[in-house]
UniProtKB/TrEMBL annotation:
Residues 124-325 form the AMP-dependent synthetase/ligase domain. Keywords: Ligase. It comes from Flavobacterium circumlabens. This is CoF synthetase. It comes from the Bacteria. InterPro entries: AMP-dep_synth/lig_dom, ANL_N_sf, CapK_Type1_Caps_Biosynth. One of its GO terms (molecular function) is ligase activity. Gene3D superfamilies: N-terminal domain of ligase-like. Coiled coil: none annotated. SUPFAM superfamilies: Acetyl-CoA synthetase-like.
Length: 452
């Protein structure tokens, strides 16, 4: 999110935190001698009614999770579709049968975000998030304070699986979002849902701090309970060797390899959770040995053919499609995520199997043997790569760029030669990770399959 994307009309802290009378901890976080040069001010904006809705959301969907059975749909789906057809302009005149309802794309939302706003949404509560556009054109996502704050009970439900709870107190830092970018919004905030606990977004880039060593001193002083971020940011943080004791690290936005996960867990002595989420609907699932375990009973997940509006039989691999959510400014009906997996249900819980958060790409050896990018991902998974890009030219040469402070180009070449049966030419480059990276998500492209 660019700093230029900030609001043009500034709010007061009273407007940002209507339920919190004591903002002394917020001021301490902002004004600490080691604090970064914060460039933004943010607050949850929850009033009494909205906070009650967040707590009701938590109780309804997370006290006891009820999903759906194979061959069935959730009990809430019929009423949800009726509500969307009645109040959301985009879904009108598209029929009323869910089984034949067409899918929705990111481009639909990008072109006409206003058509997805329910007529029952309170426009006074409108908030706008600008995506980075790392997987396509930039996208404005509309939401309100309730759907924004709902990410916290979603996170809590994941942490609960690891027997971890966030301590709710006005004198503790609950969560810190760690970034390692050239430029991003940074702020100190509080959460009314967490009884006034602190929430930070910081950038490790030295230019964001008065002194290079301040970033370590600041984090160590406030010792956030939960660190969130992407693998690149976490590996950049690891280079600083901070003396922190987080309860968990939650990684998202990029593929987390097993090698990187092990490295982080060995240092921070806590679980490193690989979370799958979308800006359009927030958190969806987290990685387990059986696949990504779904956490949202308020989302119905289907697998569709990549090119046709046809749902695939249970167990087949295709594009993940999402229906549901709690955002009146962006209710989703059969939204194509652009991510690929198969779906299985075990003991009443859905799992996304072999999830690849990108379009599937087929590569070729010199002798035309097909290599699936899933096999490449699995082969690379044990390496401490924070991210990578892999491209195949028309002459079949593989160009690989990885981000790591440990892996060598030779290691990459040797491993890929094994996957490609020693029948490929590979150029590999490894770039060091710093505190000011300009790195997009890991991606595969090919000039041979039209995915360039």
């Amino acid at each position: 999110m660019d700093a230029s994307s900030g609001p043009q009309i500034a709010l007061t802290d009273k407007e940002r935190f209507p339920l919190l009378d004591d903002l002394s901890f917020l001021n301490e976080l902002r004004q600490d001698v080691f604090a970064p040069k914060f460039n933004f001010k943010s607050g949850d904006r929850l009033n009494t009614g909205q906070l009650s809705k967040v707590k009701a959301y938590q109780k309804k969907y997370y006290d006891k999770k009820v999903f759906w059975k194979e061959g069935q749909t959730p009990i809430w789906l019929t009423d949800y579709l009726k509500w969307c057809l009645k109040t959301v302009p985009f879904y009108q005149n598209k029929g009323n049968d869910f089984d034949s309802f067409p899918t929705t794309s990111r481009e639909d939302i990008r072109k006409s975000p206003y058509l997805f706003v329910s007529n029952e949404a309170n426009l006074d509560e409108l908030l706008v998030y600008h995506t980075s556009g790392s997987t396509g054109p930039k996208l404005d996502v509309l939401f309100d304070a309730v759907s924004q704050a709902a990410w916290l009970p979603q996170i809590e439900s994941v942490l609960k699986e690891f027997n971890i709870a966030i301590t709710e107190s006005k004198n503790t830092t609950a969560i810190a979002l760690i970034c390692a970018q050239e430029k991003t919004l940074t702020y100190a905030s509080l959460s009314a849902y967490l009884q006034g606990a602190g929430v930070l977004k910081i950038n490790l880039n030295p230019s964001d701090w008065n002194h290079p060593e301040d970033v370590t001193k600041y984090l160590e002083k406030y010792n956030p309970q939960i660190l969130t971020g992407d693998p690149i940011a976490f590996m950049a943080l690891l280079d600083l060797q901070p003396q922190l004791k987080p309860k968990a690290l939650i990684s998202s936005a990029m593929r987390l390899t097993k090698g990187t996960q092990n490295k982080l867990e060995n240092y921070f002595k806590c679980p490193v959770i690989d979370l799958y989420s979308l800006t359009e609907c927030r958190n969806i699932a987290y990685a387990t040995k059986n696949g990504h375990q779904v956490i949202r009973p308020d989302l119905y997940l289907e697998i569709f053919d990549e090119h046709n509006d046809v749902p695939l039989p249970y167990g087949e691999r295709g594009e993940l499609v999402v229906t549901g959510g709690n955002n009146p400014f962006l209710p989703l009906v059969r939204y194509r995520t652009g991510d690929f997996c198969s779906l299985k249900i075990e003991n009443g819980i859905p799992f996304l199997v072999d999830l690849e958060a990108r379009n599937p790409v087929v590569f070729f050896t010199k002798s035309e043997v097909k290599i699936n990018n899933i096999d490449i991902s699995n082969g690379l998974s044990h390496l401490p790569l924070a991210g990578f890009k892999m491209h195949q030219r028309k002459d079949k040469l593989i160009q690989f760029t990885g981000y790591s402070n440990k892996v060598t180009p030779k290691k990459i070449v040797d491993l890929l030669q094994l996957i490609f049966k020693n029948d490929i030419e590979i150029h590999a480059d490894i770039q060091k990770i710093g505190q000011n990276n300009t790195v997009e998500k890991s991606q595969y492209t090919s000039e041979l399959t039209g995915n360039s």
